What we know:
Oligomer: single chain
CATH topology of the largest domain: C8orf32 fold
Strand content: 25-35%
Number of domains: 2
Number of strands: 19
Amino acid sequence: xxxxxxxxxxxxxxxxxxxxxxxxxxxxxxxxxxxxxxxxxxxxxxxxxxxxxxxxxxxxxxxxxxxxxxxxxxxxxxxxxxxxxxxxxxxxxxxxxxxxxxxxxxxxxxxxxxxxxxxxxxxxxxxxxxxxxxxxxxxxxxxxxxxxxxxxxxxxxxxxxxxxxxxxxxxxxxxxxxxxxxxxxxxxxxxxxxxxxxxxxxxxxxxxxxxxxxxxxxxxxxxxxxxxxxxxxxxxxxxxxxxxxxxxxxxxxxxxxxxxxxxxxxxxxxxxxxxxxxxxxxxxxxxxxxxxxxxxxxxxxxxxxxxxxxxxxxxxx
Length: 317
């Protein structure tokens, strides 16, 4: 049920790593061009000694060098094989070629990102595998339908460090921030070895055991929960509404409630292409509340912002 996902938000212990991984980022961001995947892998192997540092280096390099490109989508693979071993060998060969292609073009889609990450990990003797599943980039009308069935639309990785599995999504490692000069790139690490209880909020694996969480979450619960943005969800917990679809006519004003443990300076929202800034709000006993009148705007995609950072999204009907 949605309540399960709701409760998960209050029992999250963030992963802490003692290593100074920002130092890894600084080194990798100053790397020059590499002609091959092997030359990049050898450089990472030389510069860093622990698996976590090497995995961080791979993440940062991919975020800084690979661009998402829908035009890179290829025709689905069809293999003719005589045994499971034969099939696995063909997939391995296909992925080897794909990794070289994305490394050369510096462009790809989510599966390409996952394949490249996998290949570099393999070169460094780090266990990694590609996970397929459904990612919720935003709430759509289709998702808001109660009988919606998940169909794979994304791929990410599960990586093993010190005999423990972690989740990682290099496709979502880069944020493009518009400004008056065009845009700036901002590498975010919210999907680097992310806590599984957070990851399940917007990534639902084809095989649920790959979620790395012990509590079962149904597909229905997943799609019915709002889209939550991890980059701003620290110190802020959604209380209500906890369903992805809201009715603009059900109440005179729709009430939104959050538990907050950090200062709130500004509340705003997008509804379709319209931006509404400096919304009135109240805070009492660390509970933030505000009301929105959504009846005069027929757009459907609602995204809430606190302190200019996206917090969650809904489908409005």
